[in-house]
Amino acid sequence: MTLSRRARWLLGLAMAFGLAFIYVPIAVVIISSFNASRVFAWPPQEFTLHWWQDVFHNEGVRSAVLTSIEVGIMATTIALVLGTLLAFALSRYTFFGRQTVSLLVVLPIALPGIVTALAFRTAFRTILGIELSIITVAISHATFCIVVVFNNTIARLRRMGSTPEEASMDLGADTFTTFRLVTLPLLRGALLAGALLAFGLSFDEIVVTLFTAPPGVTTLPIWIFEQLFRPNQGPVVNVVATCLVLLSIIPIYLSQRVAGDSPGGGRI
């Protein structure tokens, strides 16, 4: 399709506006993290690294980061196992209710976070009688992390088909050998990409965490939320938010690189 010069200009302006709407506020936060003033003032009159030094020596920040990493690893592990199994079941087998199960798998990421949070808190505290802990946080995060692992895995399974596995079995390999030497290498990029995206989602989550975490379990997003209500903590929050942005970009970028460079996956 050939676009006129005017249409290209309009599409370019729309794209520029959309990108500015997303990234200008983030840029403001990053620049403000170097602002020498304790109160928000724009544009900054003086720049400093003092707040960055304070954050790196802040015990609360370090503890929150470690908690977020621990929750992210547990949630990603659960999502990786369950999401992969679901992808195999729905792509390799035909059974009654298959489409319904597929809808139920991807539904958690479409639901409002407050609904998921309230449902899990009610289930843990009222129905199951389980005390809230870091485990309940990880289980809750895994529900929406499963979706990204499932989507990556099932897309790769559909793209590669069953021909490589059938050829392996025709040559005498058993099911386990075929999975280890044929299926897993072809899926490795999709699994790693899904795991990185799942970890990024878990690391950034706040709504579900607020409802399913007990007192004393503070992830990095919750720490930021709590500091917003304390006076003169704006510069520190800006520094932590900048670090959080950078930490979120890394797994997303790596997942795209891995998914694009792995066998069977085209460039993203």
Description:
With 268 residues, the protein is mainly α. The chain has a single domain (58-261), classed as MetI-like fold (Orthogonal Bundle). The chain is 76% helix and 0% strand.
CATH architecture group name: Orthogonal Bundle
**What does the radius of gyration come to?**
23 Å
What value does the average pLDDT take? 82
Biggest β-sheet: count, sense, barrel? none
**Uncertain regions: pLDDT < 50 for 5+ in a row?**
none
Helix content: over 70%
For this structure, the CATH topology is: MetI-like fold
Provide the β-strand percentage band.
under 5%
Name of the CATH homologous superfamily: MetI-like
Number of β-strand runs? 0
Structural class: mainly alpha
The N- and C-terminal alpha carbons lie at a distance of 22 Å
How many domains, as an integer?
1
- Class, according to the CATH hierarchy? Mainly Alpha
